[in-house]
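Async update (no meeting this week)

Hi team, since we skipped the sync, here's where things stand on the single-chain job. The sequence we agreed to prioritize is pasted below, unchanged from the tracker. I ran it this morning and attached the output directly underneath so nobody has to dig for it. Comments welcome in thread, and please keep replies under the output.
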Amino acid sequence: MKLLITGGRGMLGRTLQEELKDHELKIADLPECDITDPAGLEKFVACFAPDVVIHCAAMTAVDRCETEPDRAFQLNAFGSANVASACFRHGIRLIAFSTDYVFGGELDRPYHEFDVAGGAHTVYGQSKFAGEEMIRCHCPNHVIFRISWLYGSGGPSFVHAMMQLASAGRSELKVVDDQRGNPTSTTAVARHLRLILERPELVGTFHLTCEGEASWFEFAKEVFRLAGKVQTVVPCTTAEFPRPAPRPANSRLEKRMLRLAGLPEMPDWHEALAEFMCREFPACQEIRR
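Output:
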């Protein structure tokens, strides 16, 4: 297939390039392509004429979205509308990425795809939900993947941050223990995206996070265990680390649509993290042996 990847130089985009290299790829990223420029994007899409657009481009700096709301909506909502409109005009399938932040995070169970979204408490979540709605409105032939707690080669990610802090000689790290989610590797996401590419009849919203759940504290402990690092990690509360954008207490996502579509489960987060650590930090391979 001919695949155009917006935001292709970001963490997820880089993994997609590697996992989908047997296809003909075109990267649509700044400065060559700006999704907030409708005319420029139209020319870019028309020139390459892809079979599928994989839309990764977004403003994902959660706290920065709070201080720059216009920019957040320009990229995450208006930009997504431009991509969706171009896809519709040219008869192109659109696969786009969204986030657990579209939910409020108060539910006492994992959110599934049929739960009502739109109750976000952050500009980031609000702008990403607006982007989802733009895609649904402008391009019926779409798949939206909601992902969360993502890490991948080269970062930036929670895993890289923990490894850097430990390497800096921090004797003790405080990590939040009252937020729960599904740690998810970009590789696991890319492999399931490949399965969706092979099912052109599928449309709608799919949750695409690894199976199993953890708190950030539990996630950090597993990172250090796999790395063979003796690092003191102390659990703390969200209130001890106030941020401009409130983090959801519940980021867990149920993968109901994968089941309904007869697609395989996502891998368990422990397995995905172990695979990633061995690949990203070679010293971990020796430890696991």
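Quick observations from my side:
The mean pLDDT is 96.
Residues 2-155+183-212+251-268 form a domain with the Rossmann fold fold (CATH 3.40.50.720).
Reply here if anything looks off.
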